[in-house]
Amino acid sequence: xxxxxxxxxxxxxxxxxxxxxxxxxxxxxxxxxxxxxxxxxxxxxxxxxxxxxxxxxxxxxxxxxxxxxxxxxxxxxxxxxxxxxxxxxxxxxxxxxxxxxxxxxxxxxxxxxxxxxxxxxxxxxxxxxxxxxxxxxxxxxxxxxxxxxxxxxxxxxxxxxxxxxxxxxxxxxxxxxxxxxxxxxxxxxxxxxxxxxxxxxxxxxxxxxxxxxxxxxxxxxxxxxxxxxxxxxxxxxxxxxxxxxxxxxxxxxxxxxxxxxxxxxxxxxxxxxxxxxxxxxxxxxxxxxxxxxxxxxxxxxxxxxxxxxxxxxxxxxxxxxxxxxxxxxxxxxxxxxxxxxxxxxxxxxxxxxxxxxxxxxxxxxxxxxxxxxxxxxxxxxxxxxxxxxxxxxxxxxxxxxxxxxxxxxxxxxxxxxxxxxxxxxxxxxxxxxxxxxxxxxxxxxxxxxxxxxxxxxxxxxxxxxxxxxxxxxxxxxx
Length: 478
Prior knowledge:
This protein is an alpha+beta fold. Helix content is 42%, strand content 20%. It has helices at residues 4-7, 21-29, 40-59, 73-76, 105-114, 157-173, 185-194, 202-209, 217-227, 232-242, 248-255, 266-284, 333-336, 349-365, 369-375, 393-405, 418-427, 438-443, 465-477, and strands at 9-11, 18-20, 63-64, 70-72, 98-100, 120-129, 141-150, 178-184, 245-246, 291-294, 307-313, 321-327, 342-347, 384-388, 410-414, 432-436, 445-450, 453-461. Strands 3-6-7-13-12-11-8-10-9 form a nine-stranded mixed sheet. It has a five-stranded mixed sheet with strand order 15-14-16-17-18, sandwiched between helices. A hairpin with a 6-residue loop joins strand 1 (9-11) and strand 2 (18-20). The protein is elongated and about 90 Å long. It starts with a helix and ends with a helix.
């Protein structure tokens, strides 16, 4: 029998519309934890950011790709290490067990395998889902912006380009200071082998080390000893290595010094040689000053096989890492048995939006009234408002259609009160207003005014409105 709460309903919105009291309570108090609504100003910021990101991806020759929001559960399982517990499972639908995608990398690998593709440079901007504990800048539904290069290339070519793309993205978004922590999975495995960790524990130990940016080493040490069964001496040795971080070429030189234990480990030697090629290339491309060689970076995901990296914002807004990625040479082979090496990066755009929104707020707080007007975030890109002074929709339709046909971004209004239409343009940041009243109709003209200086009027012949407006729009943009 249903409880009273389940069956009690209230009428909302008139006849035939009813909601449970619990649903009404949810609507009035908020929404699901770890999700967000976005207003028009926030959407303007997001649109601007997505445009920048897509242009950087395309500049490097990437093509767009989209994949389903859910995958077969077996596709996702066994790829994320201890984070697999964060995957959202869906109810059985017709005999298929499906889950919401956790990231965009595994679906990309599945796509390559299914379509027998050996090489592809792709980007994807889409939402992913995680059953995580929500906190500032951490959500259960969020966008990722991925750039990946799959296929056989000369050593470290795609790795260099992916790190370069990451620096260009963060520079173009203009969010402030950041650093890219970088390590190599084979170097990490070599370090654990040198410390005496058995190979079957490499991944679970990496998951613990990966928490060092959020927890002190003493807490990680306790987890490794008490929960994962490592000896205290082993953990102390790990601790001495993971404290190494600094300028890439300096740390690399230190690790390659005569007597270094890393030179006695085959995997570590391969990793150090890879990193030398990468760092020399980044030095020439002027990107190495953004990179920190950090032996504590582990990236707990199971599919990484080579270089790994994570971008961290250095400003006041605390959001954690804002991008991460690495090389995953075996992931495609898990689906097809055919090895297709790949490397990529994922920008956690929601955290970048958090930073951008905070920067906008700070700019407005420190600005004068006039400066605030210029800093207003425009939710639309409208260039001109066609203001017909009277109830003459056919006239408004005729004029605004000419503007639209010329690809001018225009809105229209029919109201006899000029100030009402002028205020609409001002409030929405529309730079120009085109007015047509009885007098203008008789003279065969329109009045064109810049909204920020309405005293200055231009009388434009009716048959030249597109040409004259475009001339002024071009002058303003230049």
